[in-house]
Amino acid sequence: MKKRSVIINKDNAVISIRGLCKSFDTVDVLMGMDLDLFKGENVVVLGRSGSGKSVLIKLIAGLLKPDKGTVKVTGEEVSRLNVKELEHLRLKIGFLYQGSALYDSMTVKENLEFPLVRNKRHLTRKEIDEEINQVLENVGLLQSINQMPAALSGGQKKRIGIARTLILQPEIMLYDEPTAGLDPVTCGDIITLINDVQQKYNTSSVIITHDLTCAKYTGDRVALIADGKFRKEGTFEEVFTTSDPEAKSFYDYNFIIDK
Ligand SMILES: Nc1ncnc2c1ncn2[C@@H]1O[C@H](COP(=O)(O)OP(=O)(O)OP(=O)(O)O)[C@@H](O)[C@H]1O
To answer: Which molecular function term from Gene Ontology is one that the record holds (predicted)?
Structure first.
């Protein structure tokens, strides 16, 4: 496993977060966060359970509203958009949920067809079939086209979940714990796929995880959340070759698989 170098355009921030705050009742989750995601880049957001990683990507996707601060996605301030504008913006964002969120009563093909037909009404039957075949080939699961989700392994479900977001050709991918619950070999396959997606689809991605192997091999940059803020940010080595107690304790309790 090796992270290939990619071209990152540091003049073009596709996500720009400034002074972001979010609390629930008496719990202050995010307390003034700043982050840029540049075009072509994979940024990994690491943090302990409950540190606010999922809240952060829900704010990016406009599923939650900030109490303070701004989230701009491709230049648009998410919390100022109306329903229609938000729907339009979400077409640019592929959100891979932890559970992959496939429809259990539909085949793999129908799961992929559903978002495509709904959002690209002009496509012909032939074009729909071609796009489905292409995306399944790109995630290495063309042979599963007629299977039901229940017949797929955890890793295969993740692949189909990724295919379902890719079918709308998003500019941005948000991965919520993409390797959670998978065995080490399958984790390695998903890491490779995340990097393939970055290259083939030229996506910019936020990957939230507490899996250091995933962070090390997918992240062009890593940002560590602690106490509602980004505590450290940089390459994987920069973040973890440090005496910072928060980074060190996070590192010490994790297990990295080197290949
Ligand atoms: N809708 C909500 N209402 C109330 N509290 C919430 C809500 N969503 C999140 N929280 C709280 O915000 C905090 C951060 O949650 P979040 O799910 O972002 O953590 P996380 O870093 O993603 O954790 P994990 O790694 O376990 O998924 C938690 O204390 C959680 O209980």
So the answer is: ATP hydrolysis activity
Span 126-180, pLDDT tens digits: 999 999 999 999 999 999 999 999 999 999 999 999 999 999 999 999 999 999 9
The pLDDT of residue 2 is above 90: no
Residue with CA nearest ligand 1 atom 31: 50
DSSP string, the chain: --PPP---EEEEEEEEEEEEEEEETTEEEEEEEEEEEEET-EEEEE--TTSSHHHHHHHHTTSS--SEEEEEETTEEGGG--HHHHHHHHTTEEEE-TTTT--TTS-HHHHHHHHHHHH-TT--HHHHHHHHHHHHHHTT-GGGTT--GGGS-HHHHHHHHHHHHHTT--SEEEEESTTTT--HHHHHHHHHHHHHHHHHH--EEEEEES-HHHHHHH-SEEEEEETTEEEEEESHHHHHSS--HHHHHHHHT------
Domain limits, the chain: 10-106+149-254
CA of 56 to the centre of ligand 1 (A): 9
To test the pocket of ligand 1, the residue of 24, 58, 67, 97 to mutate (highest count of ligand atoms within 8 Å of its CB) is: 24
| 55 contacts 64 by C-beta, under 8 angstroms | yes
Q: pTM, whole model, 2 decimals? A: 0.92
Whether 54 is in the pocket of ligand 1, judged by its Cβ within 6 Å, is: yes
